[in-house]
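Collaboration report, partner site 2.

Our partner group contributed sequences for two proteins of shared interest, and the home lab folded both. The records are reproduced in the order in which they were received, starting with the first partner submission.
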Amino acid sequence: MRNVLLASAGMLVLSAFAPAMAADMAARAPYVKAPPPVAYTNWTGFYIGGFGGYASENSGNPKMEGGFVGGTIGYNWQAGNIVYGLEADGGWADVDASITTLGTTVKSKTDALGTVRGRFGFAVDKVLFYGTGGYAWIDNKITASALGITASQSNFHSGWTVGAGIEAFIAPQWSIKGEYLYRSLGSENYFGVRSGDLNLHSVQFGVNYHFGGPILAKY
Protein backbone atom coordinates (compact mmCIF):
# COMPACT_ATOMS: atom_id res chain seq x y z
CA MET A 1 0.00 0.00 0.00
CA ARG A 2 2.86 2.38 0.82
CA ASN A 3 4.31 1.88 -2.67
CA VAL A 4 0.94 2.56 -4.25
CA LEU A 5 0.60 5.80 -2.32
CA LEU A 6 4.10 6.95 -3.29
CA ALA A 7 3.46 6.17 -6.93
CA SER A 8 0.16 8.03 -6.86
CA ALA A 9 1.83 11.05 -5.28
CA GLY A 10 4.51 11.04 -7.94
CA MET A 11 1.91 10.95 -10.71
CA LEU A 12 0.10 13.91 -9.16
CA VAL A 13 3.32 15.93 -9.02
CA LEU A 14 4.16 15.14 -12.65
CA SER A 15 0.65 16.01 -13.82
CA ALA A 16 0.89 19.34 -12.03
CA PHE A 17 4.21 20.31 -13.61
CA ALA A 18 3.71 18.76 -17.06
CA PRO A 19 1.78 21.73 -18.62
CA ALA A 20 4.38 24.20 -17.40
CA MET A 21 7.24 22.05 -18.72
CA ALA A 22 5.53 21.67 -22.10
CA ALA A 23 4.93 25.42 -22.34
CA ASP A 24 8.56 26.10 -21.45
CA MET A 25 9.81 23.67 -24.12
CA ALA A 26 7.53 25.24 -26.73
CA ALA A 27 8.83 28.68 -25.82
CA ARG A 28 12.42 27.50 -26.19
CA ALA A 29 11.86 25.74 -29.57
CA PRO A 30 13.33 27.72 -32.52
CA TYR A 31 10.80 29.30 -34.93
CA VAL A 32 11.47 28.62 -38.57
CA LYS A 33 9.67 30.96 -40.99
CA ALA A 34 8.66 29.63 -44.38
CA PRO A 35 10.65 31.25 -47.20
CA PRO A 36 8.70 33.88 -49.14
CA PRO A 37 7.66 33.13 -52.72
CA VAL A 38 10.18 34.13 -55.36
CA ALA A 39 8.84 35.93 -58.43
CA TYR A 40 10.23 34.99 -61.84
CA THR A 41 9.38 35.68 -65.46
CA ASN A 42 8.13 32.97 -67.80
CA TRP A 43 8.53 34.03 -71.45
CA THR A 44 6.64 31.03 -72.87
CA GLY A 45 3.46 31.83 -74.79
CA PHE A 46 1.76 33.81 -77.54
CA TYR A 47 2.12 37.56 -77.93
CA ILE A 48 0.90 40.30 -80.24
CA GLY A 49 2.05 43.87 -80.58
CA GLY A 50 2.76 46.94 -82.63
CA PHE A 51 5.99 48.53 -83.84
CA GLY A 52 7.38 51.50 -85.68
CA GLY A 53 10.78 52.42 -87.01
CA TYR A 54 13.06 53.95 -89.60
CA ALA A 55 14.87 52.38 -92.56
CA SER A 56 17.70 53.62 -94.75
CA GLU A 57 19.26 52.11 -97.86
CA ASN A 58 22.77 50.75 -97.42
CA SER A 59 24.13 52.58 -100.47
CA GLY A 60 23.01 54.62 -103.44
CA ASN A 61 22.64 58.25 -104.42
CA PRO A 62 20.06 59.25 -103.48
CA LYS A 63 19.42 56.68 -100.74
CA MET A 64 15.95 55.36 -100.06
CA GLU A 65 14.90 56.18 -96.51
CA GLY A 66 11.81 56.73 -94.40
CA GLY A 67 9.55 55.38 -91.68
CA PHE A 68 7.24 52.42 -91.19
CA VAL A 69 4.63 51.14 -88.72
CA GLY A 70 2.87 47.81 -88.30
CA GLY A 71 1.91 44.79 -86.19
CA THR A 72 3.61 41.69 -84.76
CA ILE A 73 2.55 38.18 -83.73
CA GLY A 74 4.78 35.52 -82.21
CA TYR A 75 5.31 32.62 -79.83
CA ASN A 76 8.13 31.97 -77.33
CA TRP A 77 9.41 28.81 -75.70
CA GLN A 78 11.65 28.90 -72.63
CA ALA A 79 14.09 26.31 -71.27
CA GLY A 80 15.92 27.65 -68.23
CA ASN A 81 17.38 30.99 -69.26
CA ILE A 82 17.20 30.14 -72.96
CA VAL A 83 14.28 31.64 -74.90
CA TYR A 84 13.55 30.79 -78.54
CA GLY A 85 10.59 31.39 -80.79
CA LEU A 86 9.01 32.47 -84.05
CA GLU A 87 7.81 35.94 -84.99
CA ALA A 88 6.08 37.48 -88.00
CA ASP A 89 5.54 41.18 -88.63
CA GLY A 90 4.20 43.38 -91.38
CA GLY A 91 3.44 47.03 -91.85
CA TRP A 92 2.94 50.12 -93.96
CA ALA A 93 6.03 52.00 -95.09
CA ASP A 94 7.03 55.31 -96.61
CA VAL A 95 10.61 54.56 -97.62
CA ASP A 96 11.54 56.32 -100.85
CA ALA A 97 14.03 58.23 -102.98
CA SER A 98 13.72 60.20 -106.21
CA ILE A 99 16.01 61.71 -108.81
CA THR A 100 15.40 64.12 -111.69
CA THR A 101 17.62 64.23 -114.74
CA LEU A 102 17.09 65.43 -118.32
CA GLY A 103 13.50 66.38 -117.50
CA THR A 104 12.64 62.91 -116.21
CA THR A 105 11.81 62.18 -112.58
CA VAL A 106 12.18 58.63 -111.31
CA LYS A 107 10.91 57.71 -107.85
CA SER A 108 11.31 54.43 -105.98
CA LYS A 109 8.96 53.89 -103.02
CA THR A 110 8.51 50.98 -100.63
CA ASP A 111 4.99 51.12 -99.21
CA ALA A 112 4.90 47.80 -97.29
CA LEU A 113 7.41 45.52 -95.64
CA GLY A 114 7.59 42.53 -93.30
CA THR A 115 9.53 39.56 -91.99
CA VAL A 116 9.10 36.01 -90.71
CA ARG A 117 11.92 35.30 -88.27
CA GLY A 118 13.27 32.97 -85.67
CA ARG A 119 14.47 34.40 -82.35
CA PHE A 120 17.03 32.92 -79.97
CA GLY A 121 18.13 34.62 -76.79
CA PHE A 122 19.12 34.64 -73.14
CA ALA A 123 16.71 35.86 -70.46
CA VAL A 124 17.82 37.62 -67.29
CA ASP A 125 14.48 37.57 -65.44
CA LYS A 126 12.43 40.37 -67.06
CA VAL A 127 15.01 41.24 -69.74
CA LEU A 128 15.64 39.21 -72.92
CA PHE A 129 18.72 39.64 -75.12
CA TYR A 130 18.26 37.95 -78.50
CA GLY A 131 19.47 37.46 -82.03
CA THR A 132 17.04 37.06 -84.91
CA GLY A 133 16.99 36.14 -88.58
CA GLY A 134 14.84 34.79 -91.39
CA TYR A 135 12.75 35.80 -94.39
CA ALA A 136 12.13 39.42 -95.43
CA TRP A 137 9.91 41.03 -98.06
CA ILE A 138 8.94 44.46 -99.37
CA ASP A 139 6.39 45.81 -101.85
CA ASN A 140 8.10 48.44 -103.98
CA LYS A 141 6.98 50.72 -106.82
CA ILE A 142 9.04 52.71 -109.34
CA THR A 143 7.37 55.66 -111.05
CA ALA A 144 8.82 57.56 -114.02
CA SER A 145 7.44 60.94 -115.15
CA ALA A 146 8.43 62.93 -118.23
CA LEU A 147 6.66 65.39 -120.53
CA GLY A 148 3.43 64.98 -118.57
CA ILE A 149 3.44 61.22 -119.01
CA THR A 150 3.69 58.93 -115.96
CA ALA A 151 4.38 55.21 -115.90
CA SER A 152 4.77 52.99 -112.88
CA GLN A 153 5.46 49.37 -112.03
CA SER A 154 5.27 47.52 -108.70
CA ASN A 155 7.20 44.45 -107.63
CA PHE A 156 7.34 42.17 -104.62
CA HIS A 157 10.96 41.68 -103.47
CA SER A 158 11.96 38.70 -101.33
CA GLY A 159 15.15 38.20 -99.37
CA TRP A 160 16.59 37.66 -95.91
CA THR A 161 17.14 39.57 -92.71
CA VAL A 162 19.37 39.29 -89.64
CA GLY A 163 19.64 41.38 -86.50
CA ALA A 164 19.53 41.63 -82.72
CA GLY A 165 17.38 43.19 -80.02
CA ILE A 166 16.45 43.65 -76.37
CA GLU A 167 12.98 43.10 -74.89
CA ALA A 168 11.89 43.81 -71.30
CA PHE A 169 8.69 43.42 -69.29
CA ILE A 170 7.35 46.67 -67.85
CA ALA A 171 4.12 45.13 -66.44
CA PRO A 172 2.85 41.57 -65.85
CA GLN A 173 1.72 41.13 -69.47
CA TRP A 174 3.36 44.04 -71.29
CA SER A 175 6.85 44.33 -72.73
CA ILE A 176 8.76 46.86 -74.81
CA LYS A 177 11.52 46.09 -77.28
CA GLY A 178 14.07 47.68 -79.55
CA GLU A 179 15.88 45.94 -82.39
CA TYR A 180 18.15 46.44 -85.38
CA LEU A 181 17.54 44.54 -88.63
CA TYR A 182 19.61 44.34 -91.80
CA ARG A 183 17.35 43.46 -94.74
CA SER A 184 18.69 42.25 -98.09
CA LEU A 185 16.04 42.10 -100.84
CA GLY A 186 16.62 40.49 -104.24
CA SER A 187 16.62 42.21 -107.62
CA GLU A 188 13.48 42.55 -109.80
CA ASN A 189 12.70 43.82 -113.33
CA TYR A 190 11.26 47.34 -113.76
CA PHE A 191 10.43 48.38 -117.32
CA GLY A 192 12.71 45.59 -118.55
CA VAL A 193 15.69 46.66 -116.44
CA ARG A 194 17.03 44.81 -113.37
CA SER A 195 16.82 46.92 -110.23
CA GLY A 196 19.73 45.34 -108.37
CA ASP A 197 19.55 44.18 -104.77
CA LEU A 198 18.04 46.54 -102.22
CA ASN A 199 19.75 46.48 -98.80
CA LEU A 200 18.22 48.33 -95.86
CA HIS A 201 19.35 49.13 -92.34
CA SER A 202 16.37 49.49 -90.00
CA VAL A 203 15.86 50.34 -86.35
CA GLN A 204 12.47 49.65 -84.80
CA PHE A 205 10.74 49.84 -81.43
CA GLY A 206 7.67 47.97 -80.30
CA VAL A 207 5.20 47.10 -77.54
CA ASN A 208 3.95 43.51 -77.03
CA TYR A 209 1.07 42.03 -75.06
CA HIS A 210 1.75 38.52 -73.73
CA PHE A 211 -1.15 36.13 -73.13
CA GLY A 212 -1.31 34.07 -69.96
CA GLY A 213 0.34 36.37 -67.43
CA PRO A 214 4.08 35.66 -67.54
CA ILE A 215 4.92 36.79 -63.98
CA LEU A 216 4.56 33.70 -61.77
CA ALA A 217 5.30 32.72 -58.14
CA LYS A 218 7.88 30.05 -57.40
CA TYR A 219 8.15 28.53 -53.89
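Second partner submission, folded after the first:
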Amino acid sequence: MQREPVRIVLASRTSELTPAIARWITSGRGSLAFILGDEECRHRLLADGINWDRVLVAYRGADAIGYAAFKHHRRGPFSPGSGPFVREFGRLGGTLRYGLFMVSEWREWCYGFYLYGLRVRKVARRQGVASALLQAVFEQARGSGHEKVELEVQAKNLAARAFYAHHGFVSIRTMSWLSRLVPIPTVINQRRTLSPLSRVPPK
Protein backbone atom coordinates (compact mmCIF):
# COMPACT_ATOMS: atom_id res chain seq x y z
CA MET A 1 0.00 0.00 0.00
CA GLN A 2 1.48 3.32 -1.09
CA ARG A 3 1.74 5.98 1.59
CA GLU A 4 0.53 9.52 1.11
CA PRO A 5 3.39 11.96 0.49
CA VAL A 6 4.77 14.00 3.37
CA ARG A 7 3.82 17.65 3.33
CA ILE A 8 5.88 20.14 5.37
CA VAL A 9 4.58 23.59 6.20
CA LEU A 10 5.74 26.51 8.29
CA ALA A 11 3.30 26.44 11.18
CA SER A 12 2.58 30.18 11.05
CA ARG A 13 1.25 29.76 7.49
CA THR A 14 -1.33 27.05 8.13
CA SER A 15 -4.75 26.88 9.73
CA GLU A 16 -4.32 23.18 10.55
CA LEU A 17 -2.76 23.69 13.97
CA THR A 18 -4.53 21.98 16.85
CA PRO A 19 -4.13 22.04 20.63
CA ALA A 20 -2.65 18.53 20.34
CA ILE A 21 0.17 19.86 18.15
CA ALA A 22 0.90 22.63 20.65
CA ARG A 23 0.98 20.07 23.44
CA TRP A 24 3.38 17.88 21.45
CA ILE A 25 5.77 20.76 20.77
CA THR A 26 5.85 21.85 24.40
CA SER A 27 6.61 18.29 25.51
CA GLY A 28 10.19 18.78 24.34
CA ARG A 29 12.98 20.29 26.43
CA GLY A 30 12.88 17.30 28.77
CA SER A 31 16.54 17.92 29.59
CA LEU A 32 15.36 21.09 31.37
CA ALA A 33 12.86 19.25 33.57
CA PHE A 34 14.66 20.53 36.67
CA ILE A 35 13.55 24.02 35.55
CA LEU A 36 10.36 23.38 33.56
CA GLY A 37 8.91 20.36 35.33
CA ASP A 38 7.14 17.41 33.71
CA GLU A 39 5.31 17.46 30.36
CA GLU A 40 2.09 18.86 31.81
CA CYS A 41 3.96 21.63 33.56
CA ARG A 42 5.98 22.45 30.43
CA HIS A 43 2.72 22.76 28.51
CA ARG A 44 1.30 25.20 31.04
CA LEU A 45 4.48 27.27 30.97
CA LEU A 46 5.11 27.37 27.22
CA ALA A 47 1.88 26.78 25.27
CA ASP A 48 0.81 30.42 25.16
CA GLY A 49 4.28 31.55 24.11
CA ILE A 50 4.89 29.41 21.01
CA ASN A 51 6.39 31.30 18.05
CA TRP A 52 4.81 29.38 15.19
CA ASP A 53 7.09 31.06 12.64
CA ARG A 54 9.92 29.01 14.15
CA VAL A 55 8.19 25.63 13.76
CA LEU A 56 7.87 23.36 10.73
CA VAL A 57 5.20 20.65 10.85
CA ALA A 58 5.20 17.50 8.73
CA TYR A 59 1.80 16.15 7.72
CA ARG A 60 0.71 12.96 6.06
CA GLY A 61 -2.84 13.62 5.03
CA ALA A 62 -4.46 15.39 7.98
CA ASP A 63 -2.14 13.86 10.56
CA ALA A 64 0.82 15.75 12.05
CA ILE A 65 3.63 13.19 12.11
CA GLY A 66 6.70 15.30 12.82
CA TYR A 67 8.02 18.76 13.55
CA ALA A 68 11.25 20.72 13.60
CA ALA A 69 11.78 23.84 15.67
CA PHE A 70 14.59 26.30 15.04
CA LYS A 71 16.10 29.53 16.27
CA HIS A 72 17.74 32.46 14.50
CA HIS A 73 18.07 36.21 14.96
CA ARG A 74 17.55 35.76 18.69
CA ARG A 75 14.11 34.26 18.28
CA GLY A 76 13.26 30.63 18.91
CA PRO A 77 10.09 28.55 19.19
CA PHE A 78 9.21 29.83 22.68
CA SER A 79 8.78 33.31 24.17
CA PRO A 80 6.71 32.55 27.27
CA GLY A 81 7.19 35.62 29.47
CA SER A 82 7.52 35.37 33.24
CA GLY A 83 3.78 35.29 34.04
CA PRO A 84 3.21 31.53 33.59
CA PHE A 85 6.28 30.76 35.71
CA VAL A 86 5.11 32.97 38.56
CA ARG A 87 1.60 31.47 38.44
CA GLU A 88 3.05 27.95 38.47
CA PHE A 89 5.80 28.30 41.07
CA GLY A 90 5.07 31.50 42.99
CA ARG A 91 6.83 34.84 42.73
CA LEU A 92 10.25 33.78 44.05
CA GLY A 93 10.43 30.29 42.59
CA GLY A 94 8.84 31.36 39.32
CA THR A 95 11.19 34.29 38.84
CA LEU A 96 14.20 32.05 39.53
CA ARG A 97 13.06 29.35 37.11
CA TYR A 98 12.17 31.88 34.44
CA GLY A 99 15.63 33.40 34.78
CA LEU A 100 17.29 29.99 34.44
CA PHE A 101 15.17 29.19 31.38
CA MET A 102 16.12 32.47 29.74
CA VAL A 103 19.82 31.86 30.45
CA SER A 104 19.43 28.57 28.59
CA GLU A 105 17.75 30.37 25.68
CA TRP A 106 20.34 33.16 25.59
CA ARG A 107 23.21 30.68 25.59
CA GLU A 108 22.00 29.35 22.22
CA TRP A 109 22.20 32.82 20.65
CA CYS A 110 25.87 32.09 19.96
CA TYR A 111 24.67 29.99 17.03
CA GLY A 112 23.57 31.78 13.88
CA PHE A 113 20.88 29.27 12.87
CA TYR A 114 20.12 26.65 15.51
CA LEU A 115 18.08 23.46 15.14
CA TYR A 116 16.20 23.58 18.42
CA GLY A 117 14.45 20.24 18.12
CA LEU A 118 13.31 17.59 15.62
CA ARG A 119 10.81 14.85 16.45
CA VAL A 120 8.87 12.26 14.47
CA ARG A 121 6.05 10.14 15.82
CA LYS A 122 6.97 6.48 16.32
CA VAL A 123 4.48 5.26 13.70
CA ALA A 124 6.18 7.42 11.04
CA ARG A 125 9.82 6.76 11.80
CA ARG A 126 12.23 5.25 9.24
CA GLN A 127 10.04 6.58 6.45
CA GLY A 128 12.10 9.62 5.43
CA VAL A 129 10.11 12.11 7.51
CA ALA A 130 13.07 13.28 9.59
CA SER A 131 15.17 13.70 6.45
CA ALA A 132 12.43 15.74 4.79
CA LEU A 133 12.13 17.96 7.86
CA LEU A 134 15.87 18.47 7.90
CA GLN A 135 15.84 19.51 4.25
CA ALA A 136 13.10 22.03 5.07
CA VAL A 137 15.22 23.34 7.95
CA PHE A 138 18.12 23.86 5.54
CA GLU A 139 15.82 25.84 3.25
CA GLN A 140 14.71 28.00 6.17
CA ALA A 141 18.34 28.66 7.06
CA ARG A 142 19.26 29.67 3.52
CA GLY A 143 16.16 31.84 3.28
CA SER A 144 17.19 33.72 6.43
CA GLY A 145 20.71 34.31 5.09
CA HIS A 146 22.61 31.63 7.00
CA GLU A 147 25.30 29.35 5.61
CA LYS A 148 25.46 27.00 8.59
CA VAL A 149 23.01 25.04 10.73
CA GLU A 150 24.07 24.07 14.22
CA LEU A 151 22.55 21.83 16.86
CA GLU A 152 23.30 20.13 20.14
CA VAL A 153 22.75 16.40 20.55
CA GLN A 154 23.10 14.34 23.69
CA ALA A 155 26.40 12.45 23.65
CA LYS A 156 24.66 9.23 24.66
CA ASN A 157 22.08 9.46 21.85
CA LEU A 158 24.02 7.39 19.32
CA ALA A 159 21.10 7.01 16.91
CA ALA A 160 20.61 10.79 16.63
CA ARG A 161 24.34 11.36 16.24
CA ALA A 162 24.47 8.83 13.41
CA PHE A 163 21.43 10.41 11.72
CA TYR A 164 22.95 13.89 11.76
CA ALA A 165 26.35 12.60 10.63
CA HIS A 166 24.63 10.91 7.67
CA HIS A 167 23.21 14.30 6.74
CA GLY A 168 26.52 16.11 6.76
CA PHE A 169 26.85 17.36 10.33
CA VAL A 170 30.27 17.25 11.93
CA SER A 171 31.04 17.41 15.63
CA ILE A 172 32.61 20.68 16.74
CA ARG A 173 32.99 20.26 20.48
CA THR A 174 31.73 18.27 23.44
CA MET A 175 30.12 20.52 26.02
CA SER A 176 30.66 18.52 29.20
CA TRP A 177 31.11 21.71 31.24
CA LEU A 178 27.35 22.32 31.08
CA SER A 179 26.55 19.06 32.82
CA ARG A 180 28.98 20.01 35.59
CA LEU A 181 27.08 23.25 36.22
CA VAL A 182 23.49 22.07 35.84
CA PRO A 183 21.85 18.62 35.90
CA ILE A 184 21.57 18.07 32.15
CA PRO A 185 23.18 15.40 29.94
CA THR A 186 26.49 16.04 28.18
CA VAL A 187 25.84 17.41 24.69
CA ILE A 188 27.86 17.64 21.49
CA ASN A 189 27.71 20.73 19.28
CA GLN A 190 27.37 19.70 15.62
CA ARG A 191 27.45 21.84 12.49
CA ARG A 192 26.40 21.48 8.87
CA THR A 193 27.75 23.97 6.33
CA LEU A 194 25.27 24.68 3.56
CA SER A 195 25.77 25.46 -0.09
CA PRO A 196 23.15 26.74 -2.56
CA LEU A 197 23.05 23.38 -4.35
CA SER A 198 23.43 21.06 -1.35
CA ARG A 199 20.87 18.33 -0.96
CA VAL A 200 20.11 15.91 1.85
CA PRO A 201 21.34 12.47 0.76
CA PRO A 202 18.68 9.74 0.69
CA LYS A 203 18.53 7.31 3.57
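Feedback sent to the partner group on the second submission included the following. The longest helix spans residues 83-107. The chain has one domain: 6-193.
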